[in-house]
From TrEMBL:
Organism this protein belongs to: Mucilaginibacter defluvii
Lineage: superkingdom: Bacteria
Pfam families: Glyco_hydro_43 (PF04616)
Taxonomic path: Bacteria, Pseudomonadati, Bacteroidota, Sphingobacteriia, Sphingobacteriales
Protein name: Glycoside hydrolase family 43 protein
CDD domains: GH43_CoXyl43_like
InterPro entries attached to this UniProt entry: Glyco_hydro_43, Glyco_hydro_beta-prop_sf, Glycosyl_Hydrlase_43_Enz
Length: 371
């Protein structure tokens, strides 16, 4: 791993350089423009983004998108500047509420439905409302959210609403047996719902083994030649508020059937999982974090194991991205984020672009910049 990649929630230098140039330019007038030219004493950078920000009046990140009642609903994190210095722990991601957005069509207007859940209304809250996701069952929408408890340990909570746009009411306690961050929920065609969760470094996954907190490590465990830490997956009970058993590893195997190793930072799971089903196969996708890629792996069961297939999105501007994938009116889309509006790691903006499954089932590589 190069020195450039060692700072969690920092930015690789080449992307930081682009960000600095853009923020120089956009701070005066053009925040949100899709095509940015910046000049310095002896530098000229021209960056054209593949897609424009979907929301420009607040900062948004980690977009989990779903189609409910024929409309697209987006459940992002709500970034803001808490004035906290950037560090490996991700303390500068100090989000304290969620807004929900909806769209009738891709490219059409987007509606901000306002604050759907506020940290002050969550009884067990410490700090930091990170990436959430939503599921629907029998007239109720369930919002799953990671939040640090009063002991500064991430757990996953659930909140309910009869409206996909909220407001949501949180349960008094986090989900029993939950830990770490980035819940992603997937309801299979047979009606069973699964929750995937976990994220290393600031997401604390490395602090847990077999459902018990075993250390307070801040980054990788340095078990380079051991199997990499896995995202966790467990079926939800019918009440959608409890795990149905102990979470299992969502194992990612290489083409020889061996688990990816801890040192394989270009391919191993870091955070931001998503599940979609295509042609009866289960596509597990995720971020590699410190190597800034979105990768995918395919399996025959929602519980895995999954065989690593490749990268499907190159690095965005910003430390990393966090995505979701939906099918809408016969086409597939990826929602993701970058830092086009601010040029700052912790002030992100959500975007959408089309995603293509090739005839052989692979996903076509997306470059978030237009050359
Ligand atoms: O938004 C805070 C964290 O940053 C998310 O939970 C991660 O997936 C990363 O996007």
């Amino acid at each position: 791993m190069s020195v450039l990649n060692k700072v969690r929630f920092g930015m690789p230098l080449y992307l930081a350089a682009i960000g600095v140039l853009i923020s120089c330019n956009s701070s005066s007038s053009s925040a949100g423009k899709n095509d940015t030219t910046a000049t310095g004493a002896d530098t000229i950078a021209k960056v054209k983004f593949l897609s424009p920000p979907l929301v420009k009046d607040i900062y948004t990140a980690d977009p989990s998108a779903h189609v409910f009642n024929g409309k697209i609903y987006i459940y992002p994190s709500h970034d803001y500047d808490a004035g906290i210095k950037e560090n490996d722990n991700g303390d500068h991601f100090a989000m304290k509420d969620y807004h929900i957005f909806s769209m009738d069509s891709i490219g059409g207007p987007i509606t901000d439905h306002g604050v759907a859940l506020d940290v002050k209304d969550i009884p067990w809250a410490g700090r930091q409302l990170w990436a959430s996701d939503v599921a629907y069952k029998s007239g109720t929408y369930y919002l799953y959210f990671p939040l640090k408890n009063k002991q500064d340990i991430f757990q996953i909570g659930v909140a309910t609403s009869e409206n996909p746009a909220g407001p949501f009411k949180a349960e008094p306690e986090p989900i029993t047996g939950s830990y770490s961050i980035d819940p992603a929920v997937f309801t299979d065609t047979d009606g069973k719902t699964y929750i995937y969760f976990g994220g290393i470094w600031g997401g604390q996954l490395q602090q847990w083994a077999n459902g018990k907190r075993v250390n307070d490590s801040k980054t990788d465990l340095k078990n380079d030649d051991a199997p990499a830490l896995s995202c966790k997956v467990v079926q939800l009970k019918g009440n959608m508020k409890e795990f149905d058993g102990a979470p299992k590893d969502a194992l990612i195997l290489d083409s020889l059937g061996k688990p990816l190793l801890g040192k394989d930072h270009d391919r191993r799971f870091f955070e931001g999982s998503w599940m979609h089903k295509y042609n009866n196969k289960y596509y597990f996708s995720y971020s590699t974090g410190d190597t800034h890629l979105l990768c995918y792996a395919i399996g025959d069961s929602p519980m895995g194991p999954f065989t690593y297939k490749g990268v499907f999105m190159k690095p965005v501007q910003g430390w990393t991205t966090h995505h979701s994938i939906i099918e809408f009116k016969g086409k597939w889309y990826i929602f993701y984020h970058d830092t086009e509006l601010s040029g700052k790691t912790h002030l992100r903006n959500i975007k959408v672009t089309e995603l293509t499954h090739n005839a052989d089932g692979s996903i076509a590589l997306i470059d978030p910049f237009v050359k």
